[in-house]
Automatic annotation (TrEMBL):
Keywords (A to Z) from UniProt: Repressor, Transcription, Transcription regulation
InterPro entries assigned to the protein according to its UniProt record, in alphabetical order: Hist_deAcase_cplx_SAP18, SAP18, SAP18_sf
Gene3D superfamilies per UniProt: ASAP complex, SAP18 subunit (3.10.20.550)
Name of this chain's protein: Histone deacetylase complex subunit SAP18
Domain of life, per lineage: Eukaryota
Record text on subunit structure and interactions: Found in a mRNA splicing-dependent exon junction complex (EJC). Component of the heterotrimeric ASAP (apoptosis- and splicing-associated protein) and PSAP complexes consisting of RNPS1, SAP18 and either ACIN1 or PNN, respectively; the ASAP and PSAP complexes probably are formed mutually exclusive. For the ASAP complex, the association of SAP18 seems to require a preformed RNPS1:ACIN1 complex. Forms a complex with SIN3A and HDAC1. Interacts with SUFU.
GO CC annotations on file: nucleus
Similarity section: Belongs to the SAP18 family.
GO molecular function, one term: transcription corepressor activity
Length: 137
């Protein structure tokens, strides 16, 4: 008998929401069972890297393949302490360029099955808006 599949090896259905204005969706767009209309459903694994997820998104949106397109990833999750959703930015990638977050996995960011992934895509000619908190690199 083969060993049971661990959560790491089971594919999960990842519900991804994208924007192309470089900003994440507002949390109220996820309220009461509503979700934004830009949903992509991707079968993937907990150890999928941001780089791999970037290339899956690029398969769906050819315009995101342009060199210099910026992808900012965030996990959207239910807050157990209060009703509603919270967003946690986890990292970013760029088309055609290696970056420090490329090999980051969903698992390493405490992604849980049932969470959503929100990806803010910024076209190459528009710098992403400065994040509310600057992250030291």
């Amino acid at each position: 008998p083969h060993p049971p599949l661990s959560p790491q090896t089971c594919p999960l259905l990842l519900r991804v929401f994208t924007t192309n204005n470089g900003r994440h969706h507002r949390m109220d767009e996820f309220s009461r069972g509503n979700v934004p209309s830009s949903e992509l459903q991707i079968y993937t694994w907990m150890d999928a890297t941001l780089k791999e997820l970037t290339s899956l998104v690029k398969e769906v949106y050819p315009e995101a393949r342009k060199k210099g397109t910026h992808f900012n990833f965030a996990i959207v999750f239910t807050d157990l302490k209060r009703p509603g959703y919270r967003v946690k930015e986890i990292g970013s990638t760029m088309s055609g360029r290696k970056g420090t977050d490329d090999s980051m996995t969903l698992q390493s960011q405490k992604f849980q099955i049932g969470d959503y992934l929100d990806i803010a895509i910024t076209p190459p000619n528009r710098a992403p808006p400065p994040s509310s908190r600057m992250r030291p690199y």
